[in-house]
Specification:
about 425 residues; single chain; 6-stranded antiparallel beta sheet; 26 strands; 8-stranded mixed beta sheet; mainly beta; about 10% helix
Length: about 425
């Protein structure tokens, strides 16, 4: 597999708090023709879905962009307002997403908060400038049907880290790490702090993985940003931790019996996010993408809706390749690649099977150069997917960002 390239910005959305891993790069446009190549399965070539191209303008989809700590509807990404060029960890952009077991869609928006799509295309914004204005948001996970996320400071780009070098120990250690999204009160509530995890002044959590019960976190020295996270070194340590009570009961108050925390090693951490060959992916995902030609290489960030951290699957190819993300909730499975090619099978919640449960495919409107699609969720009838524009010369900087809503009920049930 190739190293991360300028074209692999999906990685930055899905792996924000997880160490960078090798993935297949190079953006590709799928075509109906290439799906007629020899397949591993025994189905006939004619069964491959025809990819439907959505037009740039239509009443079944609408564009939104971030502006002035909120979002506005725009005619197209090209007409979206500019933001200041900032590294992807420090700017307003969609950092993570998932669909909850409640059927609602959730977006984490860096520096801003959470967008909750309650089975409609216009979301509710839950924000908290005090906690989010100087931290990077990531790790959207669920425990007991409740969404959580983490806050950290990037040791390479975050300028506010200099302030913490001179701050009091209590100020440094009492800042929150794990936050809960409370959809009833419309608040973001601190649950776990650096003090709870026993992380001393001068250290920062650089990545975490949640398997449904345990977290495994990588901690670095702030002043040693060049150390390789996989090296056994006094500047790097790994901790495994979990709550001793229901996560919903956690508050920012520190108690000795709040968490169970123990040291672990780099092998435990790296195994959590190690890429898995696609042949070992869940059956629903393998069936969804079975029409892709053998020559096509790809990597997919896969989530069980309303679950823990994602898993990462890849397939090597000798031709074109692309990166994407996928979610499955039992009723449906959906995958979206960075060029907007979308595969769906199953039924939208509360509606009948689409195409008798066979895979359908469509391509979202083509984006301008240096733009690509990122994280997505499904909420009710709507597919909602993030988009962003990177700087042509400094690919890690983001210029504009937002999201697109697509009414799949209009696409598939009104025909």
């Amino acid at each position: 597999m190739n190293a991360i390239s300028k074209n692999s910005r999906v990685l930055k959305s899905a792996f924000t708090a997880i160490s960078a891993i090798s993935i297949i790069s190079s953006l590709s446009i799928f075509s109906a023709g290439c799906s007629k190549e020899k397949q591993k399965n025994s189905e006939s070539e004619s069964s491959a879905p025809v990819i439907r191209q959505l037009p740039a303008k239509s009443n079944d989809h609408y564009w939104y962009a971030f502006k002035n700590d909120s979002f506005i509807q725009v005619e197209s990404p090209k007409k979206a307002p500019y933001q200041s060029d900032s590294p992807w960890t420090e700017c307003t952009r969609i950092a993570d997403s998932d669909t909850g077991l409640d059927g609602n869609g959730y977006f984490l928006v860096n520096r801003l908060g959470a967008l909750v799509f309650e089975k409609k295309d216009t979301p509710t914004l839950i924000e908290d400038r005090m906690f989010l204005s100087k931290s990077t948001i990531s790790n959207l996970i669920f425990s007991e049907d409740t969404p959580y996320f983490t806050l950290s400071k990037n040791i390479r780009f975050n300028k506010s880290l200099d302030e913490f070098k001179e701050s009091e120990d209590s100020e440094f250690m009492n800042r929150p790490y794990l936050m809960r999204i409370d959809t009833k009160s419309r608040l973001l509530l601190p649950c776990v702090t650096y003090a709870d995890l026993g992380i001393e002044r001068g250290k920062e959590i650089s990545g975490s993985y949640f398997d449904g019960r345990n977290w495994i976190s990588l901690i670095r020295l702030i002043d040693n940003s060049q150390i390789d996270e996989h090296m056994e070194n006094s500047s790097v340590e790994y901790k495994k931790w979990h709550s001793n009570m229901s996560y919903a009961s956690l508050t920012a108050a520190h108690t000795e019996d709040k968490l169970s925390v123990e040291l672990t090693d780099s092998a435990s951490y790296s195994s959590s996010y190690r890429p898995i060959v696609f042949e070992n992916a869940p059956e629903s995902l393998r069936n969804l993408l079975r029409y892709l030609p053998d020559s096509f290489g790809f990597s997919v960030v896969y989530r069980d809706a309303g679950g823990g951290s994602p898993k990462f699957f890849y397939r090597l190819g000798n031709g074109d390749s692309s990166d994407g993300s996928a979610i499955s909730n039992g009723n449906w499975t959906c995958a979206v690649f960075e060029d907007g090619t979308t595969y769906f099978s199953g039924a939208i919640d509360g509606r009948g099977l689409i195409n008798d449960g066979k895979t359908v495919a469509f391509r979202l409107p083509k984006l301008p150069i240096n733009f690509l699609y990122t994280n997505f969720c499904i909420s009710g009838d709507y597919l909602v997917i993030g988009w962003e524009e990177s700087d042509e010369k400094e690919f890690f900087k983001i210029k504009r960002s937002g999201f697109l809503t697509v009414n799949m009920a209009k696409l598939f049930y009104s025909e």
